[in-house]
Amino acid sequence: MIPEYVKNGVEVARRKGGKTRLFVDKDGFFYLVVGVHSSCRDRNRLMNEIYDEVYKHTDEAMLMVIVVDSSSLEEVVPKGEEVEVK
């Protein structure tokens, strides 16, 4: 089961035009990989927006956000199993 705060983070990324991949490891830690065509500064801002939304819904999040250029999205594979967020 995917926590609501993770789904909220995915929503923010998608609203901002990011392509997303989500992974979960055996300990239940989530890795949100977001691919966008933007500058490093804008990718950092997007990461902050995602975390801002996540922490509106929880005090403690087991989530790491990784924002990369869209061309690198498929190359980034954190540990764990990929899960689908609708």
Description:
26% of the residues are buried. This protein is globular. It is 35% helix and 27% strand. The longest helix has 18 residues. The mean pLDDT is 95. Strands 3-2-1-4 form a four-stranded mixed β-sheet, with helices on one face. By secondary structure, it is of the alpha+beta class. Helix 1 packs antiparallel against helix 2.
Short overview:
This protein is an alpha+beta fold and 86 residues long. The chain has helices at residues 4-15, 40-57; strands spanning 19-24, 30-36, 63-69, 81-83.
List the defining traits of the structure above.
4 strands; 27% strand; single chain; 86 residues; 35% helix
Portion of residues within helices: 25-40%
Structural class: alpha+beta
Strand order of the largest sheet: 3-2-1-4
Low-confidence stretches: none
Give the topology.
Layout: H1 4-15, E1 19-24, E2 30-36, H2 40-57, E3 63-69, E4 81-83
Parallel strand pairs: 2-3
Antiparallel strand pairs: 1-2, 1-4
Helix pairs in contact: 1-2
